[in-house]
């Protein structure tokens, strides 16, 4: 009998936009000047702020600008892959076979 069990896929590095969004929304509400005014001050669009507040991703420069405005490290929301987790098995078209001596 063959097992249909497959190992869980490796978790890649990610970013916690939901948590950033919660903090951003609270700060925008506290600020009270309106999202367009804050967005112009931050250097992003009001749509970018809306995306972040809804847990959606935006580009790294926009994340950094928002985190700077919040006076937080952009790394505070980085979710690294688990330690010791193998991310690749096999061969690559770029590096050759896993058994190539180089």
Brief overview, please?
The chain is mainly α and 102 residues long. The chain is built from four helices and two strands, in the order E-H-H-H-H-E.
Structure commentary:
41% of the residues lie in helices and 4% in strands. It has 102 residues and is mainly α. The protein has a two-stranded antiparallel sheet with strand order 1-2. Helix 1 (17-31) packs across helix 3. The chain is elongated and about 55 Å long. The model has no long low-confidence stretch (mean pLDDT 86).
- Quote the average pLDDT: 86
Structural class: mainly alpha
- The H-and-E topology, N to C, reads as EHHHHE
Quantity of strands, as a count: 2
Q: What's the helix count?
A: 4
Describe the global form. Answer: elongated
Radius of gyration: 20 Å
Widest sheet, order of strands: 1-2
Q: What is the rounded distance between the termini?
A: 40 Å
Task: Return residue spans where pLDDT drops below 50 for at least 5 consecutive residues.
Answer: none
The assembly state of the depicted protein chains is single chain
């Amino acid at each position: 009998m063959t097992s249909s069990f497959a190992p869980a896929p490796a978790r890649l590095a990610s970013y916690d936009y939901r948590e950033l969004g919660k903090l951003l929304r609270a700060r925008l509400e506290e600020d009270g000047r309106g999202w367009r005014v804050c967005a112009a001050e931050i250097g992003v669009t009001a749509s970018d702020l809306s995306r972040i507040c809804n847990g959606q991703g935006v580009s790294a420069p926009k994340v950094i600008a928002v985190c700077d405005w919040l006076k937080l490290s952009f790394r505070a929301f980085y979710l690294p892959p688990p330690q010791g987790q193998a991310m690749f098995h096999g061969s690559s078209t770029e590096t050759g076979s896993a058994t190539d001596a180089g």
